């Protein structure tokens, strides 16, 4: 049994922070594994390029079901007679399911294998997209739940597959995965309204179009089901995370920054439409902001690990995010694109830093896996409250001005949690073989 205590790094450790960052990233592979275990975990891939293509296509499908709804929300609400509170619930349910169904992923993977689960869940994602665009209000909510649950399960499994089958390129592959995820979100945000207009202004066709990429991803993922892959044959039990203050700070930072992200996905186009933009223009602003995230999501972790800890970086990126949000909400509309760019830079960095903190606050891959599950499960459940609160406040006030208070409270909470999570400490856990 290894007892890992939460204690500050020494001054010598802090002086070598950049070098230790690289070592910590390698720990995700399996720093505690002996020679026999390393041999057991070697991937048995005959066509890694096919796996890479499959991973990219799967990642592309992890946001369209969420970001495609935002530009169409006003049209959908008018068509089905939804109140602002119901519309808020519609944006909340998928995010809530990300958290509620995340713990199901490792259970399914142990029972059926990660590759089979990803394939099956891609098909349930496709089913959810069809359901929400074909059967009125009931189908809209049921399909949104199914889509959110599907994304929650796949989102937990893909990073593990990356670390297992591309151990020497884990950092690069995680960057590719993140870029594909952001690209999928941007594509859906910018093209859903034009697609609906192409199909005789049918919002159902615009939303339903995204079943095609899901089915294409399933087709290209199919060869992975029959392939042989390396696996961890030694299981570890990690205890103590739920009693660890640092683990909760990482979780709160993940949840609160995600809450702002899903408010943007769910409500930014509606806010901009309320300020006078057309649905197409609002969708393009959201799409452009998400595309900008590609830059900061790759650069922020590298920059953040140049110093002794990540606290300053967290304050800076959260300040950018809040500035972008307040600018989109209150600043003159002529400068909207500038504020959208600031928002994208901030949010791309906050998300990638949240993932990086999971790595840096963990001593080995077993702890990182459990901390990741905790941060996503509890964090996304917390994140779902933000979009719902925006809908309720808008319903009460009949406008968007008051939602700035929601931005401020959530952003301040994320900064406070991030100041704790950004310290150069490790979570305190007990790790043992089972």
UniProtKB/TrEMBL annotation:
PANTHER family: 2-NITROIMIDAZOLE TRANSPORTER, PTHR23523. Gene3D superfamilies: MFS general substrate transporter like domains (1.20.1250.20). InterPro entries: CynX-like (IPR004747), MFS (IPR011701), MFS_Cyanate_Porter (IPR052524), MFS_trans_sf (IPR036259). The chain crosses the membrane at residues 49-67, 87-105, 117-135, 141-162, 174-196, 202-222, 246-268, 280-300, 312-333, 339-360, 367-390, 402-426. CDD domains: MFS_NIMT_CynX_like. It comes from the Bacteria. Pfam families: MFS_1 (PF07690). Keywords: Membrane, Transmembrane, Transmembrane helix. One of its GO terms (molecular function) is transmembrane transporter activity. GO terms for cellular component: membrane. This is MFS transporter.
């Amino acid at each position: 049994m290894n007892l890992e205590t939460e204690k500050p790094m020494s001054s010598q450790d802090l002086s070598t922070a950049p070098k230790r960052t690289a070592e910590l990233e390698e720990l995700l592979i399996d720093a505690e594994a002996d020679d026999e275990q390393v041999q057991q975990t070697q991937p048995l891939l005959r066509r890694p390029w096919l796996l890479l293509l499959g991973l990219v296509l799967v990642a592309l499908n992890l946001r369209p079901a969420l970001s495609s709804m935002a530009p169409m929300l006003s049209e959908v609400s008018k068509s089905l007679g939804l109140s602002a509170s119901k519309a808020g619930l519609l944006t909340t349910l998928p995010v809530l399911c990300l958290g509620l169904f995340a713990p199901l992923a490792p259970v399914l993977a142990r029972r059926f294998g990660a590759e089979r689960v990803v394939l099956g869940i891609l098909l349930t994602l496709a089913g959810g997209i069809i359901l929400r665009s074909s059967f009125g209000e009931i189908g809209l909510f049921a399909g949104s739940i199914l889509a959110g649950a599907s994304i929650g399960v796949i989102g937990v499994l893909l990073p593990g597959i990356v670390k297992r089958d591309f151990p020497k390129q884990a950092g690069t592959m995680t960057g590719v995965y993140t870029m594909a995820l952001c690209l999928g979100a941007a594509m859906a945000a910018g093209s859903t309204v034009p697609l609906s207009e192409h199909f005789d202004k049918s919002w159902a066709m615009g939303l339903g179009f995204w079943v095609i990429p899901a089915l294409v991803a399933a087709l290209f993922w199919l060869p992975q089901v029959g392939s042989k892959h390396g696996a961890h044959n030694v299981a570890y039990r990690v205890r103590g995370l739920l009693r660890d203050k640092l683990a909760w700070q990482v979780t709160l930072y993940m949840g609160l920054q995600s809450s702002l992200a899903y408010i943007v996905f769910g409500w930014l186009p509606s806010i901009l439409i309320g300020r006078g933009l057309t649905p197409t223009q609002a969708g393009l602003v959201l799409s452009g902001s998400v595309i900008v995230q590609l830059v900061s999501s790759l650069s922020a972790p590298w920059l953040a690990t140049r110093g002794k800890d990540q606290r300053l970086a967290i304050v800076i990126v959260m300040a950018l995010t809040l500035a972008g949000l307040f600018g989109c909400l209150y600043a003159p509309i002529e400068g909207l694109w500038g504020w959208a760019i600031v928002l994208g830079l901030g949010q791309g960095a906050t998300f990638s830093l949240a993932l990086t903190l999971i790595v840096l606050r963990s001593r080995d891959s077993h702890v990182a896996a459990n901390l990741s599950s905790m941060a996503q499960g509890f964090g996304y459940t917390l994140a779902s409250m933000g979009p719902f609160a925006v809908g309720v406040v808008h319903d009460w006030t009949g406008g968007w001005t008051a939602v700035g208070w929601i931005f401020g409270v959530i952003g301040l909470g994320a900064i406070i949690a991030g100041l704790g999570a950004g310290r150069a400490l490790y979570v305190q856990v007990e790790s043992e073989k089972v």
